[in-house]
Amino acid sequence: MDRTERHIYLALAAFPLLLIAAGCAVDSPVAILAGLRAIVRSHSLLLTDYLAVGGLGATLVNAGLCGVISVGLMAMNRIKVSGPFIAAVYTVIGFAFFGKNIINIWPLLGGVWLYTRYQGVEYRDYLIVALFGTTLAPLASFVAIGSEWPWGLAIPLGLCAGLAAGFVLPPLASHMLRFHDGYNIYNVGFTGGLIGSFLSAVLRSFGLTIQTGELISHDYSFFLGVLLNLSFLAMIAGGALNARNQWPQLRESGRAILNSSGRLVSDFVRIGGLAATVINMGVMGLLSSAFVLLLRGTFNGPVIGGILTVVGFAAFGKHFKNSLPILAGVCIAAYVTQWTPDSTPVIIAGLFGTTLAPIAGQYGIKAGLLAGFFHLSVVMNVGMLHGGMNLYNNGFAGGFVAAMLVPVMEALKRKEKSDEQ
Q1: Which of 19, 175, 196, 362 is a Cys-bridge partner for 261, taking CB atoms 3.0 to 4.6 Å apart?
Q2: Distance from first CA to last CA of the chain, Å, rounded?
Q3: What is the Cα Rg of the chain in Å?
Q4: Segment holding 345, helix H or strand E
């Protein structure tokens, strides 16, 4: 690893380290350890806000440690930092506020490793799938802790369930990309939804009751909002400082990012460079926070998870031009349907719903508004299929929305072209 790459790694690790430092600053070591114990003993199904389970300090430390683990795995496998890996790290950190923890991510990571051993390939070739594949971390937690089976049986079964899910993720993820044709950025989320639905059906057939619900904290909104937005401003400043002697090139790089549809695979680090990508990440963080404030929401665990996922994917497909129509479509749907606009499920449907940003990027604002509008209805009804075991529920829903809309958009586009001729 050369000097430049080491600096990039340090920059990537800075945010999770900041979270660990903040967690240690707001709570005592005893409180943090007690909170972490409560977090890892939680079933972690959607929506389980770790702020309500373990408190502020433990949740920040858990998120930071999960981020450090992700960056550490990248360094051990000598991964070159790219847009997809930045997205993966920030997604792991974000969901470590509500569903992923320092224990339940390992069976999924291990399952993908077993797949690479079986296939005789390098783990580094599938590490991106492994990191995103921790979407199914609650599967291991629920079977081991929430199933009410005897511990001597439940813990080994939970481990085996996680390993099995991780093992089948790589072949399924590559196959499912065809279903939505790259217009659902959270492809592993769609795959995880199918695996979660399959396994939850099997578990239910053995008489297990999978009880989902909402455990949400509203106690730390101001502190977390300030902490996040200062971080986003620092990203913008850091990106601008990095390109301080190359302003014309930075403008061109930013234009290249904004001209991208975002359809998989859109690596903004490759398209526009690291400085422009980091600035885009900061801008998308501020935009996401503004969306939360506009709907009068609170910065709780799931909402922070949504914001950080948007920030991560601002290196891998999302920018304000292709994301705003999705957010607006969800807002419109929230005000004309039965759901409350300021509720956490609606707010995170908007944030995570930007998984459909490539539709707006490819087919325009009207298509994006339509995708966002329908996404809210779909995402509110598909969680029952996987019983909350797939954390990327919006990725699951987004796959169906994209699969329904994209063929129609393509047909209309072809008709317009034929009329013009």
Answers
A1: 362
A2: 54
A3: 20
A4: helix 344-353
